[in-house]
Design goal:
The chain is mainly α and 496 residues long. The chain contains 22 helices and four strands. Strands 1-4 form a two-stranded antiparallel ribbon. Helix 3 crosses helix 20, helix 10 packs parallel to helix 17 and helix 17 packs antiparallel against helix 19. The protein is globular, with a radius of gyration of 23 Å. The N terminus is likely disordered.
Length: 496
């Protein structure tokens, strides 16, 4: 992992920015291993500023795409069978994801998925070190708990994505540069063990969330830790714990499945954890939405305005405004069953003139966060539907087939579909995979990770023409050459 002097300097300034927002920078004279002094963590107010800065760092990124504000969704979707690149000539690095032919110096993989996650991990480690070092009586027990639990949650969250994109990764658990600068790659099993440890400690630290937290769901709380823990247990095939933690959330009456139309509303009862996107930031839309939806969604226009854009004489002039950067692949569009409300609400399309050479072709795009509604200032990290799908899979693997089918039927009924007909384990697992594909598309790389963890990635993805020749080694992204040069203990992934 690259933690050289330049990165160290950036890390110091990032902590300072976290503490001040738009205010004057806090002067920090100590070296990085003492940045966690009482100068930073001397009161609840300063702790609140730190946490607010951490959230802001993860969602805004100074208007840059990060793993946590859309990058995991976009690049996980490109690497699977969800998205493609509308203009591969203009965006060759994005095309490397889409074809699964990545080069070791891909700057998007490096900046968006590697460095951004490690930046958050560094901040989380600094918070943990700072809380432990502070003896201030003005830092209350309640705030100490929030600091520790929040930092452990986001450290686990980022390691989950690092591990699933890159495999074995350095496991930094300290903000001390001298400790982390030459770390070798920890095995994926070691990383998952730390993820589970952090999340179990997070659950133990938090009491049940209060009414304010439940109503907004914009702060890490016990429910969020339980949800991510259920996912982690699913990935390590601990079916019993995956079922248990999923059931804890499903049994919590504060959370309920919403209609398809209301699932992603800011006040949705289905949401477990969400980021707030301020309207002044990118006109209140996520970085993900800016890439996945067209600048002009025709469905938001009047019929007369649509005619203007679709006039054959005007169409090519407007094309850049009508095409999303990353349209949805036909493979995903065709995977929806007839009558599935998710395909009608969460997908949209822009048409084209019904004349040669356009022939009325439709370009589909993900529409979970519509661009035209600037009041939608949320970005969902965790929601209840995933927990039903986690429990359905865990129950299937434990031969609780009837119970698993009941969980799937709840998700399907919400989408306007009938009950599944699967009864045996294999057919139920196929049904689970299908529901996860449809329910969780364009969310946080779920499809890519699901294909990999179930061993289906090569066979499914190599059927796509531009991905032909895909091998298992290409399912992990490469470690950037800068990282390899900076740390002699860091080895490259096989195949690069």
């Amino acid at each position: 992992m690259k933690l050289n002097y330049n990165y160290l300097t950036c890390a110091v300034f990032s902590i300072a920015l976290l503490l001040t927002g738009c205010k004057k920078l806090v002067e920090i004279d100590e070296p990085i291993d003492t940045v966690t002094s009482t100068k930073i963590f001397s009161s609840d107010d300063q702790a609140d500023q730190t946490l607010a800065g951490l959230y802001s760092q993860m969602i805004s990124g100074d208007q840059n795409l990060l793993s946590t504000n859309g990058g995991a969704t976009i690049y996980g979707g490109l690497a699977s069978d969800e998205f493609k690149v509308a203009n591969s000539v203009s965006f060759p690095e994005d095309q490397e994801f889409s074809s699964n032919k990545m080069l070791v110096d891909n700057s998007m993989s490096y900046g968006v998925l590697w460095l951004a996650n490690y930046k958050t991990i560094y901040t989380a480690n600094a918070i943990l070190d700072g809380e432990a070092a502070s003896s201030s009586p003005n830092l209350t027990k309640r705030k100490r708990i929030e600091l520790k639990a929040s930092a452990k949650f986001f450290r686990a969250y980022c390691y989950f994505y690092l591990s699933n994109f890159f495999g074995d990764v350095p496991l930094a658990l300290s903000s001390n540069y001298m400790v982390t600068m030459r770390l070798p790659r920890a095995t994926q099993s070691e990383v998952y063990a730390q993820i589970i440890k952090d999340l179990r400690e997070c659950v133990a630290l938090f009491s049940d969330p209060d009414a304010a937290v439940i109503s907004t769901k914009t702060k890490v709380n016990k429910a969020a830790a339980q949800a991510l823990l259920a996912r982690a247990y699913l990935y390590v095939k601990d079916w019993g714990n995956a079922e248990t933690y999923a059931t804890d959330l499903i049994s919590n009456t504060a959370f309920q499945l919403e209609t398809v139309q209301k699932t992603f509303d800011p006040a949705s009862r289905e949401t477990i954890l969400q980021f707030t996107i301020h309207p002044s930031s990118n006109i209140g839309i996520s970085m993900e939405t800016a890439s996945l939806s067209p600048f002009v969604p025709l469905s938001a226009l009047s019929p007369s305005d649509q005619e203007i854009f679709l006039d054959p004489g005007n169409y090519l002039e407007f094309l850049d405004f009508l095409l999303p950067k990353f349209p949805v692949r036909d493979e995903l569009v065709n995977a929806f069953e007839t009558g599935d409300q998710r395909g009608k609400v969460w997908l949209d399309y822009n048409g084209s003139p019904n004349v040669e050479p356009f022939f009325g072709k439709r370009t589909y795009y993900a529409n979970k966060y519509p661009r035209n509604d600037i009041e939608r200032t949320n970005y969902v990290l965790l929601r209840l539907a995933e927990l039903y799908l986690i429990r359905a899979e865990a129950r299937t693997m434990q031969n609780k087939n009837d119970l698993a089918a009941a969980d799937l039927d709840l998700i399907r009924n919400r989408a306007g579909l009938g009950k599944i007909t699967a009864t045996d384990q294999q057919s139920l697992l196929t049904a689970v995979a299908q529901e996860r594909r449809i329910e969780l598309f364009a969310e946080w790389g779920h499809r890519f990770f699901d294909l990999k963890r179930t061993g289906r990635a090569v066979s499914v993805l190599s059927a796509i023409p531009e991905k032909q020749g895909l091998t298992a080694s290409r399912l992990l992204f490469p470690i950037h050459s800068k990282e390899i040069l900076a740390n002699a203990n860091l080895k490259q992934n096989t195949g690069y």
